[in-house]
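Onboarding guide, step 5: your first structure request.
Type a short instruction followed by the sequence, for example:

Predict the 3D structure of this protein.
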Amino acid sequence: MEEQRIRFSLDPSNGIPIYRQIIQQIEHAILSERITPGDRLPTIRSLAVELKINPNTIAKAYGELEIRGILATQVGSGTYVSDKKPIAEEDGRNRRIRELAGRFIQDMKELGVSPGEVINLIKEYEEG
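The system replies with structure tokens like these:
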């Protein structure tokens, strides 16, 4: 599919981190169907140049959305909108829990830790 453009409007003075503003605007574009499953997003580098921000900020936003299953990255091809819709108006606590859990699970996968091992690690931690 063709690359879809989102008009980002970032405000560094509003107290919301820039990466979070990017996440919110991508989610809003999906929920309002301005971008749909299969649409390709701009590359990290091109979006960073366009918005005049650090590429790591874009990578963090894309990474969080990928952990949540909203975006999918295909190496050498790009980042695409997945079939999973973001949850509208999610409260901050639940969002933070999912973000932390998603990062933890991704880190464990990268270390080659199986789901069963993760469960055992959590149980051992709880037991003291």
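Each response can be followed by summary notes, for example: The chain has two domains: 1-88, 90-128.
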